[in-house]
Amino acid sequence: MLNVCDFTMSYNYDNSDVMTDYFDTNFYLTLGIGRYDKPYQTELPKLQTKDKLPEVFKHPEEAANKAIRQALGKARFDFIQSRANAGKLILGEDTYGSKGEHYFWPKQYSSAKTAQKRIDKLTEAGMRCRMTKVAAETKAYKKIPVINEFKDSEGNDIMQQQIERNYTRIKADVVQIIEDEMERIANDPNLRHLIPQEDGKQEKQ
After folding, report:
1. How far apart are CA 190 and CA 205, in angstroms?
2. Hey, how many other C-beta atoms are within 10 angstroms of the C-beta on 76?
């Protein structure tokens, strides 16, 4: 991996200057083996022998074990180093970085309804658990107040018309600001030279 990285970077250059927020490089390179949810594995070479190898004993999976495995999926219960969940057994998943570093993150859901479905499956498998923050946060949700519905007195949608009016007004304000500033500069003896003169016309001193 290091040899591949060194060979690839031999075609790269980097004239960036982070102090001035200036970036000039040929390309950016990130190499990794495996995926974020499945790290790379080192396989040992198989033994070459003419004798028949003994079969590996596998414990038969009972109905309860199968129910738990299907309910958990790729998730598992473990403790994490977090102030918010200190001392709590959390349902989470294993993730891995580009260099094989291991992380364990709590399982997160887009809504309390989706999380409740997973909890129901775990309950059916004999594991009792509850949501940590989703339920409390969902109950505390407040409906965003409507500031402007963009509707006229008859209930018609006028959002596009309002956007066009705002655009026209802002454009007119910008033109007026430019004209006022140009006039101010033209009337200032110390600044009037900043205004470019038309061909054939020279500023009178």
Report:
1. 11
2. 13
Q: Greater confidence, 113 or 185?
A: 185
Answer positive or negative: Cα dihedral of 186, 191, 192, 195. negative
Closest CA to 8 of 25, 27, 21: 27
What is the rounded radius of gyration, in angstroms, for the C-alpha atoms of the chain? 33
64-73, pLDDT tens digit by residue? 788 888 888 8
User: If DSSP codes are grouped into helix, strand and coil, which group holds residue 102?
Assistant: strand
Summarize the confidence of residues 129-149 as an average pLDDT. Answer: 69
- Of residues 102 and 132, the one with the higher pLDDT is 102
Q: For residue 181, which of 195, 171, 166, 198 has the smallest C-alpha distance? A: 195
List all residues 6 or more positions away from 154 whose beta carbon is below 8 Å from its beta carbon: none
Q: At residue 69, what are phi and psi to the nearest 5 degrees? A: -60, -45
Residue 192: count other Cβ atoms within 10 Å of its Cβ: 13
Q: If DSSP codes are grouped into helix, strand and coil, which group holds residue 97?
A: coil
Residues 196 and 183: their CA atoms lie apart, in Å, by 13
Question: Who wins on pLDDT, 128 or 167?
Answer: 167
Spatial separation of the C-alpha atoms in residues 48 and 41, rounded to whole Å: 21
Tokens standing for residue 96: 């891995």
Residue 145 near residue 168 (C-beta atoms within 8 A): no
Is there a contact between 47 and 54 (Cβ–Cβ < 8 Å)? no
- Is the pTM higher than 0.90? no
